[in-house]
Amino acid sequence: MIHRPTYRQMVRHLRAEAHAGRMLPFVIEYQGRLAGQLTVAGITWGSMCSGHVGYWVDEAVAGRGVMPTAVALAVDHCFRTVGLHRIEVCIRPENGPSRRVVEKLGFREEGLRPRYLHIDGGWRDHLVYVLTAEEVPEGLLARWHRVRPNASQK
Hints:
The protein contains four helices and six strands; from the N terminus they run αβββαβαββα. The protein has 154 residues and is an alpha+beta fold.
């Protein structure tokens, strides 16, 4: 049986990992209220200099560009301030909305990781999407703003 931490234990763990330099947890606010969460985790230094991003967003704000903007901001922070070189996002193949986030931002699909994470009682396959610092010399947020459809046209 998998032990599920309490909310307080989860926050304590996030803080400890952040303090150790292995994780960057972010809260996402939209119009003054909690709208989601994004974490850069698995930060590895040395010759790898990478991390992976996980996120969720409140369905009430989905489709408004909140998550692509948050991912772009976090990736820019990782590349420009933290000094990482590579960011991965692993997404279940059936999760179309999450896949659209990284596809909108221009992440490359690198392949499938079979039975990668234990979710909902079983080992689930995940698609791997990747971006390296060289692929966005102008920054990911700048690229997202350049390609994003005008919100007023929706």
